[in-house]
Amino acid sequence: MGKKAGRYKLLIFKALAILLPLIILAITESVLRWSNYGHNTSLFVAYSNSRYLQVNPYASEKFFSDTVNATKGSSEIFEVNKGYRTYRIFVLGESTTIGYPYFHNGAFHRWLQFRLMQMYPGRKFEIINVAMTALNSYAVLDFGKQVMQYQPDAVMVYTGHNEYYGAMGVGSANYIGSNRFFVKAIVCIRELRIFQLMNNLFNRFKPSGKATDTRENLMKRMAAQQTIAYKSDTYYAGIRQFRNNMNELCRLYNERHIPLFLSNVVSNEKDQPPFISAGTGLLSANESYESGKLAYQKGNFELAKNYYQNAKEFDELRFRAPEAINSIIDELVKRYPAVHLVDAKKLFGENSPHRIIGKETILEHVHPNLHGYGILADAFFRSFDQQQLIKDRPLRRLTFNELESGMPITKLDSLAGEYQIALLKKGWPFNIPLPKSFDRQVDLADSLAHRVTYNDIQWKDAMSALYQRAVDKNDKSAQVRIAEAMNLEYPENEAFCGLAANLNAELGRFEMAAVYYCALNYIHPDSRYVARAIKMYLRGNSIAAALSVVPELPPAQQDKVREILMGIQADKNFLQANPGDNAAMGRLSDAYKKLGIADSLLHKEVKLRQKG
Known about the structure:
Elements: H1 2-34, E1 44-46, E2 52-55, E3 77-79, E4 86-93, H2 95-98, H3 108-119, E5 124-129, H4 137-147, E6 154-158, H5 180-189, H6 193-204, H7 218-222, H8 233-255, E7 260-263, H9 285-297, H10 301-314, H11 323-335, E8 339-342, H12 344-350, H13 370-386, H14 400-406, H15 411-426, H16 444-453, H17 459-472, H18 476-489, H19 494-506, H20 510-523, H21 527-539, H22 543-549, H23 555-577, H24 582-594, H25 600-611
Parallel strand pairs: 4-5, 4-6, 6-7, 7-8
Antiparallel strand pairs: 1-2, 2-3
Helix pairs in contact: 3-13, 4-8, 8-11, 9-10, 15-16, 16-17, 17-18, 18-19, 19-20, 20-21, 21-22, 23-24
């Protein structure tokens, strides 16, 4: 009996010996969380208004061993409770995906948002970009799992360039191994406040020689292994990393029948010389590049394209994805029915001289210029269209040229991107001196772009200054462009949306005004906004569009308004065959008055009939 009691006590002692450290750790973790030490690294956190969520500015920290290098995403918000007319799309990826170097409305998802809101004003589109610079497929997989919880109608993915030097990439300063289970475990551990405390203490007392030099650009800080030979073990490790992570992501989305739009990636092949070349002859990046230039000059463009592509493949500083990445994307699209190809590479080729991608669409090695971001948005749109993602019938078909001319991007945006790229190229691995024009400040947009580039002023405040200048000059066209830009940046802001609506109405852009009045109704449901949208569509002579908005009215009003609109359509058709018919004109006048529209619209109708 005594021996049994002894064994029992020994078991209890061993159990306590095991559990006590865990209990202490749990208590310490709870205390740290209670005292708000460290950061929550969930992808989304509550916005100041509990009605919305936004991307967590600390979400990327768990992927970096030194959080000095951690990057932040956009601050786009979306409703906690998804509306019944809402189409929700998430965007996953890296620096190109977030729109570097323009960010804001330069990013391709904003181009897509602007297009869709005009084509489908009866829908509210939430396109939430969770991409961040210096991340790769590990983060895309992690974030992709998290966005599944938020009722996505579709997810867009553009990634592949950062498998070597992105966070946890095989050649990066954050590389911790190739075992995916181990890497995922480390990511989970980094979410703990205890780990964050230990990591902060370690970085604080790290020898100065090993401390992160923030004077260097992020490219240099992240690239630990600066030479990765073609078909080396590290080269293949990066490809395996991408294949395994993206295969898991695609499998999960396929199992849940969530449409995943996966783009192949593009890079500058014609106008970006190799960063680091080794080897000789056919395996030399530099020799391949020079051979490509020579073939291009001689007009042998197919041969030039092959040489340029080989130069990129043999470049040992792997900031541009190898073609194997695009091959994996093709495989995944064929393997999983819910995964759809976005053929950005084909579209970029079609918009490049002789189908060789270069400076016409790419700023440096991988990041598109504004025209390029428009093309990338068009590639996703075409894939949406091909897959019939949006079942509604569009009110209009917006061409790419119309999108490009109407996209509310300002001189401030384009200049800020230009200055950002100049600063990037000043550092490693480009080492190109700043152009003499860099310090020019010939007007307000120039001055503000400089300040935005150096973070001396926030983009929102710079845009406000531009708007005030436009008001002082009574430049309505500039005012409406800025108002539309602010609405894209802050789609839930009633003031910006209302300003865009009213200014478009003033300028006679009635269909655009109607689009913004519809958007106002989604922000703050009010039948008066719907009524204004109907009036704007009538002023724009688009009765079909006006009818499409009727379901947004209170149920008691819908049949009456629909009857009036159909009557207007019938009388217009009658007047085409019987110009000047007094009875029809009288019915039109009564109909316009019932809708609260002045007789000026009727007078316009009379003039049109008289001309006819």
